[in-house]
Amino acid sequence: MTVSSFHPPSRVLMGPGPSDIHSRVLQALGRPVIGHLDPEFIMMMDEIKGLLHYAFQTTNQMTLPISAPGSAGMECAFVNLVEPGDNVIVCVNGVFGGRMVENVERCGATAIKVVDDWGTPIDLNKLEDALKANPGVKAVAFVHAETSTGVQSDAAAISALAQKFDALTIMDAVTSLAGTPVLVDEWKIDACYSGTQKCLSCVPGLSPVTFSERALETIRGRNHKVQSWFLDLNLIMGYWSSEGATRSYHHTAPVNTLYALHESLVMLKEEGLENAWKRHAKNHLALKAGLEALGLTLLVEEGYRLPQLNAVKIPGGVDEALVRRRMLADFGIEIGAGLGALAGKVWRIGLMGQSSSPRHVTLVLSALEGTLTDMGANTGNGGAAQAAQKVLLA
Ligand SMILES: *Cc1c(COP(=O)(O)O)cnc(C)c1O
């Protein structure tokens, strides 16, 4: 068998990530490699830090992209802040909260779980009860935007509760960053991590993180070495430090991926965060109008819905996997399946970053209506794309 170059098919990415990427970002990826200690590269790294300050709405000095995907950002937050013997409250209302529990336990600490149903936000009363019942917890960890269910929790209120009980906050903003407000300083979040392939519409493989001064004090005061050499912030900071002259080799930075992140952050700055949030909100409302025309409903109650991740209940009698396969084969559109407890119960339609546009909304609705009609399913009143356009053109 001869193996030749790989050419990916043309796709429209409307699942839970990765999202579609602008040609400007892909072009940045193809620029020549330079040394990762080259003074010109270091200047670009400083610009990335500045742009991440803007994206996270923070002045935290320790703000940088980890050279690995969102899961590594998650691990970075836990391994640096959590030590053997600590107690950490973890709010679990979907897949990613469950992964946080794993991280806490692998740090040799105890995870105290505050569990809510999949599809509902984190219950503040339950969290307060857990804080009262467990004096001295080191941190409260939670997922701001649960990609597995499409739920957004009230980060400001969760963080205020954690402050009241003198606990650090660890927030997963992988899906929220650049899609809905993430206000790290205003909410007093101590550790926050994200990913590049969701609302930032960059290639997968980097995890922007930010740590508060209080988090850094905690890290400096550790009794045990951070068990991960690669993710030890004390060492990473030697490379990403603010004084360019003293930068030392830690690992070889993914040079071209960082060009791409730089470009996607420049694009975010050009659009403006608030405009990006508004765009995500409007396209979500248009999608919702179209889905309703087809008699379809969203899993999550109004008020907690993520505009960038829409969990749609599967109507009775429909082969949900066949719908996804046909959307991909007939229209080149990728939508997501349900995960874990929601497997087979929902589709997850992502409107993230560049995939949050009137074009994407119109396309996915029209393709979904066509597919369901062809499969003999009930499509309500029909006219999904037109219903969405009423919202889009209003
Ligand atoms: C996607 C995602 C992650 C993991 O990011 P990867 O880049 O896939 O490692 C973590 N948390 C949430 C909420 C996510 O949506």
Question: How is this fold's topology laid out?
Answer:
Elements: E1 12-14, H1 23-29, H2 39-56, E2 62-66, H3 70-81, E3 87-92, H4 95-106, E4 110-115, H5 124-133, E5 139-143, E6 145-146, E7 151-152, H6 155-164, E8 168-172, E9 191-193, E10 207-211, H7 213-220, H8 233-240, H9 255-271, H10 273-293, E11 309-313, H11 320-331, E12 333-337, E13 346-350, H12 358-374, H13 384-392
Helix pairs in contact: 1-9, 2-9, 5-6, 10-12, 10-13, 11-12, 12-13
The structure holds pyridoxal-5'-phosphate.
Organism: Magnetovibrio blakemorei
Pfam families: Aminotran_5
Cofactor: pyridoxal 5'-phosphate
Description:
The protein has 13 helices and 13 strands. The protein is of the alpha/beta class and about 400 residues long. The protein has two domains: about 25-270, 3-Layer(aba) Sandwich (Aspartate Aminotransferase, domain 2), CATH 3.40.640; about 275-390, Aspartate Aminotransferase, domain 1 (Alpha-Beta Complex), CATH 3.90.1150. The strands form three sheets. A seven-stranded mixed β-sheet has the order 2-10-9-8-5-3-4, with helices on both faces. Strands 1-12-13-11 form a four-stranded mixed β-sheet. Helix 1 (about 25-30) runs antiparallel to helix 9 (about 255-270), helix 5 packs parallel to helix 6 (about 155-165) and helix 11 (about 320-330) packs across helix 12 (about 360-375). The model has no long low-confidence stretch (mean pLDDT about 95). Bound molecules: pyridoxal-5'-phosphate (PLP). Pyridoxal-5'-phosphate binds near residues 69, 71, 143, 147 and 195. GO terms for molecular function: alanine-glyoxylate transaminase activity; L-serine-pyruvate transaminase activity. It comes from Magnetovibrio blakemorei.
